[in-house]
Design a protein that fits this description.
The protein contains 19 helices and 27 strands. The strands form seven sheets. Strands 1, 17, 18, 20, 21 and 22 form a six-stranded antiparallel beta sheet that branches. Helix 1 runs antiparallel to helix 2, helix 1 packs parallel to helix 9 and helix 3 crosses helix 6. The protein starts with a strand and ends in a 21-residue tail after the last strand.
């Protein structure tokens, strides 16, 4: 067993919160007139919500939930990133248990999750009214985000007593996050507010966030990564939060909101980097253009005369809003070239490693420890070790700390497998060098990770494919396209007997492939775009199996 020996021996002195209510109250007291949110109303007008107004609306909505009989109940939240989403989340977790859902999942999966979690209410973007209103069980209370906004409109006096009397234990599940887009059989991660607040405390000890900072929220808030680091943490610092209008509007949003911080995945940084190099290549004299077309941005900038370099840097930073200073990056492997490129523009890029079960950060780069090739060192207050190491020092990463989940929802067997003597077994492989830097090498699990950092669970797609009788056997794997990006591939053995029965004759190759393609299309129709099967291989013989008839996930099956 190897232990992470490098620690964050330098830290910032900062307050520690135990729950969301403390965060809301503290920021209200410290930053009453500072804007907590800047949102765009219909017609393009900006609305600023101060920390005083957030405090008032928080207590009003909590009281509304209490009046609805939702104390101790589970409340689902689904929709686009917005102030209403954030407020619903904070209040649901305070009064009962919040269940954030992926807005991209199919309606049938939304209903399955609501049923599996026994949700008594749901807060949703108005968009979902068309699909949800008639489908939800009658006992599930429904509040559109318009209802949430109206119901939280402050009274002349803010009543705090009932909400402040709610006990918020350290070991009570108040955030339930389903980790994949399956039905109710999916794993649900049970987190306490203390788990998440502990992770916030670890982070702000080594990454300085100022009340004057502004963020642009881009990644989905139902992910712990975005919710912890780009909502809750920033609210605890008195920071202003703005929302992206969509991936096609990122550039416009950067220029109108002037963010200083972005929480992103590597894919977004790569897009920004390419866009910047392309724009600069067009703007500089022709004799310098080739550098920006062929070299990394940092190297190309060095080819410019000093005076021109300064002008180009200022112009580039202006396209990012003019105040950008920090990228926090996670969820997928980061190209070190990107770190160098943005460092050349005066923008710090800090990458980290985490999981939903750890709320989420386990290790990270920081203001005091930076290594662009590593995902960082263990976060303050946490422990991290490797077990079952091979000859190269690569082993499974395990960790423990106040941020580690309480367990999996209604699944003691799975919980016992990953939580052993207080240590969470991540299922991820890595090595730790002599200075404590963590390097991720792969995953024990079969998860396929997209360039945007989203997880695709092969078993989910296989189970859905096997629901189609035309499919006799299948295996889903991750492959790389010509650009090296991961794609989902399914290898499928058709059920020829059933197809022949349906057709009334033995199927030829075209008919076999059509039956398989129809099954795949049906599955894809119920999947978010990033989970869809892109490559299909129709098999002529059975997949290799173990002695217990389980399909092997190695050898010719995954070639």
């Amino acid at each position: 067993m190897t232990e992470s020996v490098k620690v964050n021996d330098r830290t910032y002195k900062t307050a520690r919160f135990e729950n969301y209510r403390e965060i809301v109250n503290s920021s209200y007291e410290k930053f009453p007139q500072r804007a907590a949110f800047q949102v765009k109303a219909p017609g393009g007008k900006y609305v600023y919500i101060t920390y005083t107004q957030l405090w008032e609306r928080y207590y009003k909505l909590c009281n509304t939930f209490l009046e609805m009989g939702l104390r101790g109940k589970r409340i689902a939240v689904i929709g686009k990133n917005s102030f209403e989403w954030s407020l619903s989340y904070l209040c649901a977790a305070t009064v009962g248990c919040v269940v954030p859902l992926d807005k991209e999942i199919h309606t049938s999966d939304i209903l399955s999750f609501v049923e599996a979690a026994d949700c008594q209410a749901i807060c949703y973007s108005d968009y979902f009214a068309k699909t949800l209103l008639g489908e939800l069980p009658a006992h599930v209370r429904q509040l559109s985000f318009t209802d949430v906004y109206n119901a939280s409109t402050p009274d002349e006096e803010t009543f705090t007593e009932a909400v402040d009397s709610i006990e918020i234990p350290r070991d009570e599940t108040q955030i339930l996050i389903f980790t994949s887009g399956t039905t109710g059989k999916a794993k649900g991660v049970c987190l306490s507010q203390y788990n998440i607040c502990s992770n916030i405390y670890s982070t702000v000890q080594v990454v300085k966030i100022h009340p004057t900072d502004v963020t642009l929220s881009i990644l989905p808030l139902h992910h712990t990564y975005e919710c912890t680091l780009n909502l809750l943490l920033l609210l605890s610092r008195g920071t202003k939060i703005t929302y992206c209008g969509g991936l096609t509007k990122i550039q416009k949003n950067l220029e109108e909101y002037h963010p200083s911080i972005l929480v992103v995945v590597p894919a977004l940084l790569s897009v920004l980097d390419k866009r910047i190099r392309k724009a600069v290549a067009k703007s500089v004299p022709s004799r310098y253009s080739e550098y920006f077309e062929t070299l990394p941005l940092a190297d190309a900038l060095q080819k410019l005369p000093f005076f021109m370099r300064a002008v180009v840097k200022n112009r580039v930073k202006a396209t990012l809003g003019g105040k950008m200073r920090l990228f926090i990056v996670g969820a997928a492997e980061l190209d070190t070239t990107l770190v160098r490129d943005f460092e050349a523009l005066g923008i710090e890029t800090l990458q980290g490693y985490g999981l939903t079960e750890c709320a989420p950060l386990v290790a990270g780069n920081s203001d005091f420890n930076q290594n662009s090739e590593s995902t960082g060192v263990v976060m303050p207050g946490n422990e991290m070790r490797l077990i079952n190491m091979n000859d190269e020092g690569v082993g499974e990463i395990i960790t423990r700390g106040d941020n580690v989940m309480l367990g999996y929802f209604n699944d003691p067997e799975s919980t016992e497998k990953v939580l052993v003597d207080g240590w969470f077994h991540t299922g991820d492989l890595g090595y730790i060098d002599e200075n404590g830097w963590l390097f991720i090498k792969g995953r024990i699990k079969n998860v396929i990770v997209t360039t945007n950092g989203k997880n695709i669970y092969p078993e989910e797609l296989e189970n859905r494919l096997m629901d189609h009788p035309e499919v006799k056997e299948c295996i889903v794997i991750g492959v790389r396209d010509s650009d090296g990006k991961p794609e989902v591939k399914a290898k499928i053995l058709p059920n020829e007997d059933l197809i022949a029965e349906e057709l009334g004759h033995e199927p030829d190759r075209e008919e076999r492939e059509k039956a398989v393609r129809d099954a795949v299309d049906s599955v894809n129709d119920e999947m978010p775009a990033y989970k869809r099967i892109k490559i299909v291989q129709v098999l002529d013989k059975e997949l290799e199996k173990t002695t217990t008839s389980k399909i092997m996930r190695y050898g010719s099956n995954i070639e």
